[in-house]
Design goal:
The protein is mostly beta strands. The protein folds into two domains: about 60 residues, no CATH class; about 70 residues, no CATH class. It has no helices and twelve strands. This is Fibronectin type-III domain-containing protein.
Length: about 140
């Protein structure tokens, strides 16, 4: 084991071990999250009890699918339920009037629309779904 991953719901106390990764691994998936809960993470080397702690990272757990919160631009993170622009692994629900910017390519696993809601495409804008989203 190269590094331990610790999580807390408070930025200064209560960190507990939630997993670990080997040296040179650059990602970690935490599947034990509650929607709407804010989490803080830190990383420490497996050969250190307290020294060399990483900077604390703050994340909020989101539920799938992402859904729009207001009319506006697709690329506005505040227009989405998880406060981020949807990406290749996401399924989204359009509950408002949204617009794709010029030349923007949205890659998604799926998209649904509430009745009467639309997605307006600017010049050369695209949405790639499912297996299309995996192509370069």
């Amino acid at each position: 084991m190269g590094y331990f991953i610790e999580r807390a719901t408070n930025p200064t106390t209560g960190f507990t071990l939630v997993g670990g990764v080997a040296p040179n691994v650059t990602s970690f998936t935490d599947n034990q999250l509650a929607t709407g809960t804010h989490y803080w993470y830190r990383i420490r080397p497996s050969n250190s009890a307290t020294g060399s702690l990483s900077q604390i990272l703050s994340l909020a757990a989101c539920s799938a699918p992402l859904y729009s919160l207001k009319d506006g631009w697709w690329t506005d993170a505040t227009a989405w339920s998880c406060n981020r622009v949807p990406g290749p692994g996401d399924v989204v629900q359009v509950k408002h009037q949204l617009q794709l910017p010029v030349n923007y390519v949205a890659t998604l696993q799926g998209v649904g629309f509430d009745p009467g809601k639309t997605l307006t495409y600017s010049i050369n804008a695209q949405v790639k779904l499912g297996s299309q989203a995996q192509k370069p």
